[in-house]
Amino acid sequence: MADHQEHSADLPECPSAKGGGLLPAELRAWMLLLAATGAVEQRLRAVVKEKLDVSHDEFLILCLLAEQPEGGLRMTRVAELLGRPKTRLTYQIACLQHAGLVSRRSVCGDKRGVEVALTDKARRLLTEASGPLAETVTRSLARIMGPDQREALSALVPDLAEESRAD
């Protein structure tokens, strides 16, 4: 099994980042995104569990809710954005509610609608954990992507350029 502490220079560049294969550029780009996402998720799971004591899927829900300027999101919208079945989402929301991280309320004028929002506790925990979580994302992306891909993503992840220089 590969050592997780390998230096990115020791790793071959992701094959999807290179041209010359059978795939058109769009599919190569998609494969690179999948590889990058997988690398980030793999390393992020442990940090999320340690810092927030939630599953990766529950963390994604918290992230969606954290990006809402005011209030929360309807559960149907959360399920839609995450591509999750509503029944699974209901269970995850219940776990987050039990942990004191989200609140649920009926949507005014719609007896079936339920809106979910972050609690102050969740906001505090996300604020405290954001540094190590962001660093995990940056290091994971820097490890899997070549220089051209890092440059293309640097507008979205500004510290990615710095991380590649540190390698």
Task: Describe the protein.
Helix content is 60%, strand content 10%. It is mostly helical and 167 residues long. It has one domain: Arc Repressor Mutant, subunit A (Orthogonal Bundle). It has a three-stranded antiparallel β-sheet with strand order 1-3-2. Strand 2 and strand 3 form a beta hairpin. Helix 1 packs across helix 5 and helix 5 crosses helix 7. The N terminus is likely disordered.
What does the secondary structure layout of this molecule look like, with pairings?
Blueprint: H1 25-52, H2 56-66, E1 73-74, H3 75-82, H4 86-98, E2 102-107, E3 110-118, H5 120-144, H6 147-153, H7 159-166
Could you write a compact summary of the structure shown?
The chain is mainly α and 167 residues long. The chain has helices at residues 25-52, 56-66, 75-82, 86-98, 120-144, 147-153, 159-166; strands at residues 73-74, 102-107, 110-118.
The CATH topology comes to Arc Repressor Mutant, subunit A
Number of helices: 7
Which structural class fits the helix and strand makeup? mainly alpha
Content of β-strand: 5-15%
Strand order of the largest sheet: 1-3-2
Oligomer: single chain
Question: Under the CATH scheme, which class?
Answer: Mainly Alpha
Termini separation:
22 Å
Q: How many domains, in number, for the residues?
A: 1
